[in-house]
Amino acid sequence: MRRRIPVIGLLIFLLLTIPGCWDNKDITQISIVSAMGLDKSENDKLEVTFRVSKPVQGQAGGGKGSTDLKSSTMISLEADTIPDAVTEAYSSLSRKIFLAQIQLIVISEELARQENIRDLLDFLERNRESNIQARVLIARGIKPKEIMASQSELEYLSIYHLINVFKQSEDVSFMRDVALFDIFRKNVAEGDEAYISIVQLFQGREGQSSQPDSAEEHEKQLPKMEDLSIGGIAVFNQGIMVGSFDTVQTRAVLLVDENEQRGMISLANPLAPDKFVNVKMIGSQSTKSVKIVNNTNDPSEDLLLSVKIKAEGIINYQQGTGDLTTPDMIKLIEGQIAEHLRYEIQSVIAITQKDFKTDIFEFGRIVHKHHLNYWRNIEDWNALYSELPVDIEVQFKLKGSGYVSKPMELR
Amino acid sequence: MLRKLYRTLNYLRIKKADHYTSNRNAGPGSNQKPKRAAEKISSNIDRIKGRLEGEFQNCSDFALREIVIGSRSKRRVLLAYLKGMVNKDELNGHIVQPLLQEIRSPGYADEAGYRSVSDYLQEHIITTCELEQKNDFSEITGAIFAGDTVIFIEGENTALVAGTGDWAERSIDEPDTETVVRGPREGFIESLGTNVTLLRRKIKNPNLKFEKMVLGKQTRTEICICYMHNIADPNLVQMVRNRLASIDTDTILESGYLEEFIQDDPVSLFPKIGNSEKPDKVAAKLLEGRVAILCDGSPFVLTAPFLFIESFQASEDYYSGFYSASILRTLRFISFFISLALPGLYVAFITFHQEIIPYSLLLSLSASREGVPISPFLEVASMGLTFEILREAGVRLPRAVGQAVSIVGALVLGESAVRAGFISNPIVIITALTAISSFVVTPLAGILPVLRIFLLICSNVLGLLGLTLGMAFILIHLCSLQSFTYPYLATFAPMHASDLQDSLIRVPFWRMNKRPKSLTQDNPGANRTRMANATKSKNGSAGE
To answer: Which chain A residues are Cβ-neighbours of B369 within 8 angstroms?
Structure first.
């Protein structure tokens, strides 16, 4: 026994060291992919662009925040699928592609309108080495490749620029922070469609069209992250993009779909019609339900989609004089805002029903959960959804005047 | 194969159980070695003189002094002592002078009707406070070595042993190993007698027992077993006695010798016997029911049993407030974990699990790794080795050179190695943090490098999985350990809920009514109550 222990120890040691098939890989042997762009190539193939971080000593060289191209490099590959592109990258990159740190995935609108997003991203769902927290964006009017190459003036790590913009979404309800995980979670069943925020060039700024003369020129002409703006959402039906909402419509969508939305609402000052009053929404609560109104066993007759929203806000800004804090005025403003929001929501739901024919609000899930007997009889939920009546109720409560203290001259 | 293994394990189990029951059942006195037959002291002074001179041949520090007392009977008296070990003033003033003056006075022992001269001398003449009669010559040598003066009287078979021992000692000062901000600053010294006094001054109670024994055939080192008679488990005390008595060696120079001889599972890495230089700490352990072993010549007093949790307890925890004590306790556990696992974690993260490092951190880590020629494992291992070398050099070097070493170590090695690109920046941080943390838990500081290297290898082979396996291995080993039959990981495994009040946190004293259960185990007769009104406070009235 005593003689065997060293022998066994030696065997274990040899087993672990000699075959060398272990997962021990140094971080200097991997190319850390920070972002990935998916686009349709000219040859009608998939164009996959990897933004690969280059390890450079941080802050060492002056550190004036001049994030240059040198901190990352870009590789664009044409392939049929993402795994093909990854395999292809072996031939040109000196280090193994490492996808587990992907922070951002940008899909061009063109591609999203043609290909099923689930099929596109399936590789990332299966791959052990993938980051399901990666943010997903749809690029409109700009190629994902250009976004991959763009740099931020503000952020030390450029890739964090767009992600941090995303993170502000809870303060302004005109985009939604969608991660890979959300897409995997949605789309699992009918009646549960995804929507993804859209990134586009800032209005008024043009994407470059002319060919750059020199490398330096090229560097200058690349879009900066500051030129990009995120706003609005792309709506998907069965994984294929069917349309989009602008920022105002997005707020209505988010009001219905999620709680605790914030944002600004401007309306005419009731005391001075040509002036504005701005109300800051500070919270919202949405209750979605599907009610049975008839008893005919026909889903299209019986079901009523119902949305109840309770929101609250404070007066943020007031033009013109007059006291808006009287009970009458408060009631008036509350009613106006509630009506305003109700109208926005109604129009948005109408668009999803009539134009997109896609249920992005998870009503299908509610029917499935609470009215299974109906759900079993439904053949095409999205088709049915587009015909169902909707009952929308909005309550808005003005919580305060927004004053820190009453102004000298009461307005 | 399996059957054989099972049989071997079974055998070991039975053997172990057998060992402990035999230890526990041994009655008092059974530990005594077969005594040598008492040797009579000769009544002939010349014979004694010849014998002693023979025994102490070439011992220049040995002295014999012959005095004649009594004007009529002219009895010869022989004083034997070691020169450096007796207090000369005491010898002169309390023994030699009274004996010599006795010549002039008329009354004599024989005439006064005393049973013997030695009785007379003891009761009337010799003025030292420590004085006893001995009949066994074999005890004489030991007494002389202890610094006593032995007085032989012609014509009598009794010798008087006067405690005149006094020699140069280090003064009592603050121990270097366990410094405190608040709390007593005195520490044990190399003299057993002084150490016993220091303990006695802490616990003024006859229940505090000191049992002396002599170990080491050549060194004849005095050992003292110390315990609270009314608190310590008698089985434990007996076991300590038995184990000490069965030590068969010729050298005991420090308590560390004893520790290695008597600790359980002697090949295990973890310390199973505690040591301390501070009387207050040892006193506290005695009062919890532990046994202390004092060894002449060593300021380090052993305490047994030693549990894992004790490594994290400092005497200051009990002197400062319980909030800060609890925070510091937790901090010690964290530091222990850092010191144990940080290098392994770093290697596991950086070579196996890049996906769990935050993106920006990964970038800066990978940037600092860029261009470094050796693997992270070798980086960590070599820097760890460098630190151990520096530390060892720092301990051994003369104090005057210390500064040079620290400058070379900290600046030249750390800074330049990074600048030269031999190692990456994070390694310096990892090594420094690991090294500093390892000193927080002093009793385990010695074994931490071994465990650290073990976990480092585990992580380099299998990543976090390997690290977890390594940790599990250590934990299982800890669970299997015992210290004097007390489970090493007690309080946690086996879990004693009542003892948790002095583990990761320390509750206030008025909540600690009972002595630790880990030390009394399930003994129903154990004296566990710390406070007189502990039972009362259970009924609602708060303890005072």
So the answer is: 26-28, 55
Cβ separation of A32 and B352 shorter than 8 Å? Answer: no
Dihedral pair phi/psi, residue B353, rounded to 5°? -120, 55
Does the beta carbon of B245 lie under 8 angstroms from any beta carbon of chain A?
A: no
Give me the pLDDT at residue A220, please.
Answer: 56
* A26, two tokens: 């140094």
Is the pTM here over 0.90, yes or no? no
- DSSP states along B48-66: HHHHHHHHTTT-TTEEEEE
DSSP state of A51: E
Closest CA to A98 of B170, B509, B356, B148: B356
Per the CB < 8 A criterion, the answer to whether A404 and A319 are in contact is no
SS3 B526: coil
Alpha-carbon span B84 to B61, nearest angstrom: 7
Nearest to A27 among B359, B369, B461 (CB): B369
In degrees and rounded to multiples of 5, residue B524 shows phi and psi of: -70, -25
Chain centroid to CA B341: how far? 29
Distances (CA, A) of A135 to A102, A178, A227, B15: 9, 6, 19, 64
Q: Decide: A91 and A150 in contact? Cβ < 8 Å.
A: no
Structure tokens at A139: 């690029």
Residue A312 has pLDDT above 70, yes or no: yes
Please indicate whether, in this complex, the C-beta atoms of B359 and A26 are within 8 angstroms of each other: no
Surface of A (317-356) touching B: CB under 8 A: none
Q: Do B363 and A32 touch (CB under 8 A)?
A: yes
Give the nearest partner residue to A24 out of B362, B366, B460, using CB atoms.
B460
Q: Do B376 and A1 touch (CB under 8 A)?
A: no
Long-range contacts of B509-512 (CB under 8 A, 24+ apart): B509/B318, B509/B322, B510/B537, B510/B542, B510/B543, B510/B544, B511/B543
User: Within a 13 Å sphere around the CA of A314, how many CA atoms are in the beta-carbon half?
Assistant: 8
Residues of A whose CB is below 8 A from B458:
none
> Which of helix, strand or coil describes residue B48?
helix
Give, as one character, the DSSP assignment of residue B139: H
Neighbours of A228 (CB within 10 A): 22
Other C-beta atoms closer than 10 Å to the C-beta of A43 total: 8
pLDDT, tens only, B518-541: 887 666 667 777 765 544 444 443
Give the A:B interface size as CB pairs under 8 Å: 66
What are the pLDDT digits (tens) for A367-393?
A: 888 888 888 888 888 888 888 899 999
Q: Does the distance separating the beta carbons of A103 and B461 come in below 8 Å?
A: no
Enumerate the residues of chain B whose CB falls inside 8 A of the CB of residue A22.
461-462
Say whether A25 and B351 touch across the interface (CB within 8 A): yes
The stretch A163-186 carries a mean pLDDT of 82
- Residue ranges of chain B with per-residue pLDDT less than 70: 1-2, 11, 13-37, 71-73, 103-114, 521-525, 531-544
Contact at CB, A57 and B351, closer than 8 angstroms: no
Q: For B1, name the nearest residue in chain A, comparing CA atoms only.
A: A1
B191: number of CA atoms within 13 Å, CB side? 15
Residue of A nearest to B363 (CA): A55
Helix (H, G, I), strand (E, B) or coil at A391: strand
Q: Is B354 on the interface with A (CB under 8 A)?
A: yes
What is residue A11's predicted lDDT score, i.e. its pLDDT? 83
**Res B252: pLDDT:** 92
Burial of residue B358, with CB atoms counted within 10 A of its CB: 0-12 exposed, 13-18 middle, 19 or more buried? exposed
Tell me which residue in B351, B364, B463 faces A58 most closely, judged by beta carbons: B364
- Report the 10 Å Cβ neighbour count for B146: 19
CA angle B358/B362/B365 to nearest 5° reads 140
Q: What residues of chain A, 195 to 224, have a C-beta less than 8 Å from chain B?
A: none
